[in-house]
Amino acid sequence: MRMRYSLFRAGFRAIAVTCADRWLRSLAQGCGLILTFHHVRPHKARAFSPNALLEITPEFLESVLRELHSNGFELIPLDAVPERVDREACGRPFAVLTFDDGYRDNVEYAWPILKRYGAPWTVFVTTDFAEGRGRLWWIELEQAIARLERVRLLIEDRLIQFPTHTPHEKQRAFEEIFRKLRAGPEESLYAATASLAAQADLCAQDLVRGLCLSWDELRSIAREPDVTIGGHTRTHPILAKRSATAARHEIGDGKAILEQHLARPVRHFAYPGGDSTCAGPREFRLAQEAGFVTAVTTRPGHLFRQHQKQLHALPRVSVNGLFQTRSALRALLSGVPFLAWNRARVAPVEAE
Known about the structure:
By secondary structure, this protein is α/β, with parallel strands linked by helices. It folds into 2 domains: 2-132 and 212-341, Glycoside hydrolase/deacetylase (TIM Barrel); 137-205, no CATH class. It is 46% helix and 16% strand. The protein contains 16 helices and 12 strands. Strands 1, 4, 5, 6, 9, 10, 11 and 12 form an 8-stranded parallel β-sheet that branches. Strands 2-3 form a two-stranded parallel ribbon. Strands 7-8 form a two-stranded antiparallel sheet. Helix 1 crosses helix 15 (326-334) and helix 8 (137-147) runs parallel beside helix 10. It is globular and about 60 Å long. The relative contact order is 0.17.
């Protein structure tokens, strides 16, 4: 993982040095892009912070908005995307701002900045998180390892042990356990993280209630004209690992629960995880059948006219907390990194 991020940094530096973000932009930028955010909150120095890629500071969010403005991007709501990618000519590039999971810091820290810039935004909500009973298992894993000096757990009947005295040991344990859990069945993932949470005296429900927006808070922001609420399943599963019936219920029931609580249509969806191991053609079809107008992945890329036929498999550009620099941001907004990532294909996701 650390090698991968080193390569990303080197790539962003190379793009900046060669000015490729300028001279390749016309080929790479397309009609626009959808940006992905998770947490937005003040920086807190932590020696062990493996989920830091999922958080940016309010100051960097403001830098993103300034950079979008200076590069001529029009900020539009997700509702406007189908029409914009269907135009004969792209015209002025657009940007859509999306926030996954429904974290309270999006309202506390991000929204005041978004208001100042007149920026519409979408928050994708997992309904169990709003109920205060879901499992933020990747955060459970981080916080449990942070508290423990030794990790012992069973993963598929195999005992795994790591010393976790130092930040380096904790990082190694997190990466190894995360990789094993993501590769295995979800039952093992939830059982292992629950076991570690119990060892660390960590309450999963308190974690969710502390971090995620409640129904009352969601109803309040849903009334605002600049806010769109989207679906993000009931429990935040890896949909590709579920049966077709279970995946259909996760997608459709999450939509129905949101509409019941918010008393308004929910037109847009984000696949949890969102990469090719989490969602594919079957999930794209299920999202369309559930009645969503668009559905977004985490496959990296900008939007092109070809995406008018892939509205339930739209790529996004993740604003990664490990790369809060202007050079990285300018590279991402140019679309240049994704020419290599997607081998120069303009529509790098599977057809529905």
